[in-house]
Amino acid sequence: MTLESPKTHTQKSQEELFNFLSNVDNYKSIMPESLENFKKIDDESFLFQLKGMPEIMLVIKETTPHNQVVLGAKSDKLPFTLTADIEEAQEGSDVQLQFNGEFNAMMGMMIKGPIKKFIATLSENMGKL
């Protein structure tokens, strides 16, 4: 299953946004209002929980300086990645999030809506930076 957020413009430069997304401490500030728990595990990973959802642990899997940050699930139970593609733009940068996961059809139907809303909110909150 692949889902994409709308492309969002931010006032941060491409390098500033890349550095922001490469620091796990910063993700708390772009999470949805329904955030119930956020905990930094180490410099590469964090755990978060939204209301009515299970805890999810994410780890920075790879980075391509100033262009891309790839987060992935730390657990193999729900394998997925969340990729932020960052492009230079006039007076800032543009970012688009892409969610890729391997789920059975039933699970995919259950989580598609909440995940689409989640990545749209993250993207929207990055635009406010």
TrEMBL record:
It comes from the Bacteria. Keywords: Glycosyltransferase, Transferase. GO terms for molecular function: glycosyltransferase activity. This is Orotate phosphoribosyltransferase. It comes from Croceibacter atlanticus (strain ATCC BAA-628 / JCM 21780 / CIP 108009 / IAM 15332 / KCTC 12090 / HTCC2559). The lineage of its organism: Bacteria, Pseudomonadati, Bacteroidota, Flavobacteriia, Flavobacteriales.
